[in-house]
């Protein structure tokens, strides 16, 4: 044991010494690897990176801290513990998901932020679930304490929205970091109870901030994600988010992940909650170093946090800090953990809190006195008491104080009813069309596929004929926005080419790898950037990412496209918890667009339906309420809805609805059912005349044929939405029924265009009214449109319509709280016609898998539609 050995170059335990006795070698290695830090890094396939870690772990004295540094840890630990104690004292019966057992997380996060700020970071985006959220808001972000305490008071909201529980709210703070004397921006993203759902959202927000700052290497903006141990191992979105970490269009150049490892998930212990040895094993797939550290050893935790921040700044890769700790109070403060983990909780009850242990350590080292420890505690308790007294004077909760991405200057000075024009001059359409249809400028050298040559040629012919198909209409919307300085980002599975080979926004050199040409990036010398990027095969993670991206800047068009609309069901959590209800819960607007290919093409049950009925069911317009008709009816409806659901049938309408996303004075998500067969349907074309100055989005497209010339003679009025229009139109023409059947398309389903549909019904007084759809009766729009037809035909009106004109119809952003729909009275003679249903019968599956059966169902549908 006393024999001297020469030390190899792969270890740093010797410091300046080149050789050591075996006894000392073992002692130093055990001191490094067998105490309170366990590090996994040997799987990393870079010797430089492995040596970097070794050097910071093995070098003698590397973990030594100064007295001032130890005092700072104690002060921060005192605040973290004091905050939880204060809440426990004042709100003993309230759930708050406190940090007792892992109070060190607050000093840990502050250390990561301090070190990162020192290394150049100016903005930090934090994503976390509820455990410790209030403490992070109070002691990391320094959210005013009185605002936190008002959340416990059960006050009414002073502004728009239904609100959310206190530990789901986000915030945004700009302040001076006193440790580094540099300004720092901290944003905590609002989160639902679905534990890891916030991960991709925070990543998207981080990526967007980096993009708009020109921070291409992630040196100024970074993200910190906090996880629970059971959720980190169990939630698939963690894996989806991890796999975005090094993809060129999604990387945030390194994320610091902090796992609050309570060693138990609600009541489930690790033996039943994961198959891997460690909860963090999912991180090994991206070669991230994993630092396991005992959360009751503050100095080891701080050392690991400094290492993690330096790793991220050096290599711009993910890193994991696993804080191995416990929950003192069970799942929440009113839970009884002894039911399920009696032995563990007997041990926890006899375990001293980390603050007590560390205070005793520093007192024994002579760094602080007992009086100093007591003084720091009392000072913080006094701060909390003063904030508590102030909070009792508040009469309302203001959710605007909790927005995680304030859009400064966006809403101010705008007419809330003014929508900017969406039509553009014809020269712009021609220029974009020609650029989009032209081969690369160096066509002699850049060899494109023969099929692409044919596509570009047919596109150019359309441009010359002043007509657009779907792909051209979309490209003109994008191009005209880029010309106006609006960044456009299109993301999803195979979006560059398009799943149906219709888009081709990236042309590939046929003989040179990685040589590409992007026509829409080369329209104008001073245009805004256009990002089109194929995503990983993920819906949940990528939709969350794009949602976070869209929340950062209102002046950008961000689109996520599902490969088939049916596949959006694996992103349902994002849709339900964040997209449909984000504004109501968190006063958090977004203009995100979801493209969902939808339509019954005989392709079977997983390639037919984007589940249109689900989006309509989650729409927040009242089926029994007909708002007062006025010139600004459409924009008022749009403001008051939670999102827009549309099923367009013309390239011009797609052009306008995409541009309208930016033209509106506010932002709403747009759920757009996109076509498959209509991408190439010869009838699904639009003249440039429908996109030029003076034109706009058509919420409905009335029948423009013989029926409209003699409405009195029309026997049947069919309303429909989407592709089925073209199926029925052909049969009406073939059978010579154009003068007897009027066919009207409802292009915007939510908010429902009651005013226009009412006029359309009145236009054909002798016609039977039917709703026609290709979907099954228990699916598609029928259950949504039926009660709204009843309301608009009933002749009832809001008896306080004049009040609506004062502005009270609008939410908090425009100076008033949205009122409940007032009572009605009969103001017009009711239209006694009943709207009948035409479409497929009810079914459990969205479509048949048999092509013959599909055609038979379609024939029956057409036959019923044409029956007069």
UniProtKB/TrEMBL annotation:
<dbReference type="GO" id="GO:0005739">
    <property type="term" value="C:mitochondrion"/>
</dbReference>
<dbReference type="GO" id="GO:0004591">
    <property type="term" value="F:oxoglutarate dehydrogenase (succinyl-transferring) activity"/>
</dbReference>
<keyword id="KW-0560">Oxidoreductase</keyword>
<comment type="similarity">
    <text>Belongs to the alpha-ketoglutarate dehydrogenase family.</text>
</comment>
<dbReference type="GO" id="GO:0006099">
    <property type="term" value="P:tricarboxylic acid cycle"/>
</dbReference>
<dbReference type="GO" id="GO:0030976">
    <property type="term" value="F:thiamine pyrophosphate binding"/>
</dbReference>
<dbReference type="InterPro" id="IPR005475">
    <property type="entry name" value="Transketolase-like_Pyr-bd"/>
</dbReference>
<keyword id="KW-0786">Thiamine pyrophosphate</keyword>
<dbReference type="InterPro" id="IPR011603">
    <property type="entry name" value="2oxoglutarate_DH_E1"/>
</dbReference>
<keyword id="KW-0809">Transit peptide</keyword>
<dbReference type="InterPro" id="IPR031717">
    <property type="entry name" value="ODO-1/KGD_C"/>
</dbReference>
<keyword id="KW-0496">Mitochondrion</keyword>
<dbReference type="Pfam" id="PF16870">
    <property type="entry name" value="OxoGdeHyase_C"/>
</dbReference>
<dbReference type="GO" id="GO:0046872">
    <property type="term" value="F:metal ion binding"/>
</dbReference>
<dbReference type="GO" id="GO:0045252">
    <property type="term" value="C:oxoglutarate dehydrogenase complex"/>
</dbReference>
<dbReference type="InterPro" id="IPR001017">
    <property type="entry name" value="DH_E1"/>
</dbReference>
<keyword id="KW-0460">Magnesium</keyword>
<dbReference type="GO" id="GO:0006096">
    <property type="term" value="P:glycolytic process"/>
</dbReference>
<dbReference type="InterPro" id="IPR042179">
    <property type="entry name" value="KGD_C_sf"/>
</dbReference>
<dbReference type="Pfam" id="PF00676">
    <property type="entry name" value="E1_dh"/>
</dbReference>
<protein>
    <recommendedName>
        <fullName>oxoglutarate dehydrogenase (succinyl-transferring)</fullName>
        <ecNumber>1.2.4.2</ecNumber>
    </recommendedName>
</protein>
<feature type="domain" description="Transketolase-like pyrimidine-binding">
    <location>
        <begin position="468"/>
        <end position="681"/>
    </location>
</feature>
<keyword id="KW-0324">Glycolysis</keyword>
<dbReference type="Pfam" id="PF02779">
    <property type="entry name" value="Transket_pyr"/>
</dbReference>
<keyword id="KW-0479">Metal-binding</keyword>
<dbReference type="InterPro" id="IPR029061">
    <property type="entry name" value="THDP-binding"/>
</dbReference>
